[in-house]
């Protein structure tokens, strides 16, 4: 239910969320570990192509409760971390909707957050693998095994 709420708010009020100022508020999602997660999509795509690995693209915002739950529960699970180590990972900040994020949303037809995209080494999204909404650690692992 909470995931649907984030989707609805993201779709119905994108300009509202784009205009919010989160400076001074304590972030709910931890900073990206530079050794593990990229913050730049093009750099991550280049590495995925070079290493011939699938790219995981996590679109998140601090105001999105399911996004925070992914970070605090699913992505911290040791079994999930083991599976994630097989992928190139990038986390893209959707706290504000700028031209780049708007372009990504339109290009990949993002309806709301959280959205996790999987892109092959050639740069093509594996659409059947897309995740929209929250998955528990065991559900996330099963999704990876069944869809990648």
Instruction: Name the average pLDDT.
Output: 84
Sheet/helix structural class: alpha/beta
Number of helices: 7
Poorly predicted runs are 7-27
Helix content: 40-55%
Q: What is the overall shape? A: globular
- The radius of gyration over CA amounts to 15 Å
Helix and strand pattern: HHEHEHHEHEEH
Sheet with the most strands, sense and barrel status? 5 strands, mixed
Query: Main sheet: which strands, in order across?
Result: 1-3-2-4-5
Oligomer: single chain
Instruction: For the record, give the distance between the C-alpha atoms at the N and C termini, rounded to a whole number.
Output: 27 Å
Tell how many strands the DSSP assignment holds. 5
Describe this structure in words.
The chain is of the alpha/beta class and 148 residues long. Helix content is 45%, strand content 14%. A 5-stranded mixed beta sheet has the order 1-3-2-4-5, with helices on one face. The longest helix has 11 residues, at 2-12. The chain starts with a helix and ends with a helix. Mean pLDDT is 84; it is low at 7-27.
